[in-house]
């Protein structure tokens, strides 16, 4: 990440922390920058193998591309 | 003839720091400490926790680095779970643990008598597809409604046919309904019961890429080459929404899974529970246990 992306990450973190429990990043273990999507992926996988959740994905401008959520859904 | 099929009483969770874990379970779930003690066979300290005098969960901390509990913990330690906390043993009640132990043994399973005349036996993980179990005499059911009650275990197995047969012969658990498939989890499952009470969900990955398969590969070792064993503990609650609110208000995290297995269900990740993945579903009317 360059300075633009790092600044954006800082803003996204502050924005989400202000949302408290309604934020999308609590529980994150790994933050990854996806250059092609221009977005940050907040990975909450805990077991390395078995992940309960798909990552939350937020764009550089802070918009939510994917709020994340349980992987195991539907029957 | 007495039905020996055991039903689940509670689980023991191996933790790194007993006092810290007790405080976390109190804060997050509103549990209260009952008895505390030291186990002379397993060389661990324990704290019994419940809401109304019942035992909902037992937290255990090994007393040295050279115990079975500490070896189990070391083997599963990862970056995100550096002390390898989590499931250690589940305790099952049956009308006649001595007769059940004899049945398990006669079908080729290994059991260990605690040897104090109590009837308590341990069932070696090799006899139960990777799950370390304890069988104890039946107690009267606890009458009070509690915010959480353990229902059954989800156990990852390599072959559903084989596992169903093992648990039927050794424990008397049967599958009364069809198996089911969960595409998003890439696994097939079989629910097995003691009479009308669910004992386990057996979970078989459908491909090497299944998250269950990945977990099993990580767990596999010389003694458990297929990496079978407990994957999740499933609980019921009369008010899952209030429970989730309480956990979050206390600084914990839940994953709401409204689509499956039913409205109001949730997962509680291992980082919140000292290593034990929990699923909580709304409590329906259940047969007496």
Question: Would you kindly provide a written description of the structure presented here, covering whatever features stand out?
Answer:
The complex is a heterodimer of chains A (75) and B (289). By secondary structure, chain A is of the alpha+beta class. Chain A is built from 1 helix and 6 strands; from the N terminus they run αββββββ. Chain A is globular, with a radius of gyration of 13 Å. The N and C termini of chain A lie far apart (39 Å). In chain A, 28% of the residues are buried. Chain B is 23% helix and 33% strand. Chain B has helices at 18-29, 68-76, 97-106, 160-171, 211-219, 240-249, 270-273; strands at 7-14, 32-39, 44-50, 57-62, 86-94, 111-113, 121-123, 133-137, 149-156, 180-182, 187-194, 197-205, 229-237, 255-256, 266-268, 278-282. In chain B, strand 10 and strand 11 (187-194) form a beta hairpin. Chain B is globular and about 50 Å long. The two termini of chain B are 18 Å apart. Classes of the chains: A alpha+beta (75), B alpha+beta (289). The interface between A and B is medium-sized, with 20 and 29 residues.
């Amino acid at each position: 990440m360059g300075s633009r992306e790092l600044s954006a990450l800082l803003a996204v973190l502050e924005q989400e922390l202000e949302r408290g429990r309604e934020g999308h990043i609590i529980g994150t273990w790994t933050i990854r920058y996806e250059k092609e999507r221009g977005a940050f992926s907040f990975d909450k996988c805990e077991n390395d193998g078995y992940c309960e959740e798909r990552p939350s994905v937020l764009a550089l401008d802070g918009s939510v591309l994917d709020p994340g959520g349980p992987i195991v859904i539907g029957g | 003839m007495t039905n020996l099929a055991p039903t689940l009483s509670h689980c023991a969770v191996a933790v790194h720091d007993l006092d810290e874990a007790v405080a976390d379970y109190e804060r997050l779930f509103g549990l209260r400490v009952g008895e505390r003690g030291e186990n002379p066979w397993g060389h661990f300290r324990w704290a019994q926790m419940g809401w109304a005098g019942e035992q909902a969960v037992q937290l255990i901390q090994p007393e040295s680095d050279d115990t079975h509990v500490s070896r189990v913990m070391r083997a599963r330690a990862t970056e995100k779970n550096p002390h390898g906390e989590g499931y250690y043993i589940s305790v099952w009640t049956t009308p006649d643990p001595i007769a059940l132990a004899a049945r398990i043994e006669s079908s080729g399973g290994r059991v260990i008598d605690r040897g104090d005349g109590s009837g308590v036996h341990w069932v070696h993980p090799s006899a139960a597809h990777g799950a370390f179990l304890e069988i104890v005499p039946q107690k009267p059911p606890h009458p009070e409604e509690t915010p959480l009650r353990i229902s059954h275990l989800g156990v990852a197995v390599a072959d559903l046919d084989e596992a169903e047969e093992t648990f039927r012969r050794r424990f008397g658990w049967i599958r009364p309904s069809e198996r089911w498939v969960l595409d998003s989890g890439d696994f097939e499952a079989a629910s097995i019961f003691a009479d009308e009470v669910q004992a386990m969900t057996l979970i078989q990955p459908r491909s090497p890429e299944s998250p269950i398969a990945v977990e099993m590969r990580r767990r596999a070792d010389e003694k458990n080459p297929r990496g079978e064993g407990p994957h999740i503990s499933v609980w019921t609650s009369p008010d899952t929404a209030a429970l989730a609110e309480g956990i979050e208000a206390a600084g914990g995290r839940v994953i709401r899974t409204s689509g499956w297995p039913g409205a109001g269900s949730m997962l509680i990740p291992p980082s919140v529970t000292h290593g034990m993945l929990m699923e909580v579903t709304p409590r329906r009317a259940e047969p007496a246990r």
